[in-house]
Amino acid sequence: MSSRGEQGRLVGARLRRLREEAGLSLAGLATRVPYSRAALGHYETGTRAAPSEVIDWYERVHAQAVPALPRVRRDPRAADAALAAAIAAGHRVGRPLIEIGRPHQGDSGFFCPFRIDGMIEGEAAGSDAATALRSALRAIGDELGRADQR
What Pfam families does this protein's entry cite (predicted)? Predict the structure, then answer.
């Protein structure tokens, strides 16, 4: 067994643990990051080396879903609600600043970056640039809807 293959499996196991602690399936995670479910599966099994950007996405999603206390699991919907509450608290007066970037093509499709008041950043995926843009608008609408419910 090569040390490179062993390292890939170790990184993959860590990625899987981060995803599971966040309470997400592969499909659930794929809706939050700019990678397909199949690509994420390859990274978690170690059949593909995970680039640093992938690891950053896993850590970001994990940090949003899991409290700071170690080994404590939390329902990801609670993290979403807390994030929405933070947005609402920051904007009791006025409207949130929404930034939508230009859709770009990646390895597994098109991605459209977005940001809401610098608190929420993400990239929505689509099969083409227009679909990625619509996905980003839908994701922004979902986040703002959660903020309004608080």
Answer: DUF6968 (PF22302), HTH_31 (PF13560)
Is 71 within a domain? no
52/110 same-domain check: no
The pTM of the full predicted model, rounded to 2 decimals, is: 0.44
> 10-residue block means of pLDDT along the chain (150 residues)?
68 89 88 90 90 86 64 53 59 66 85 80 85 86 72
| DSSP bridge partners of 106 | 109
Q: Which two tokens stand for residue 147?
A: 């903020």
Helix locations, the chain, DSSP H:
3-21, 26-30, 37-45, 52-65, 76-90, 129-149
- Pair 15, 58: CB distance under 8 Å: yes
Residue-number span of the structural domain to which 135 is assigned: 76-149
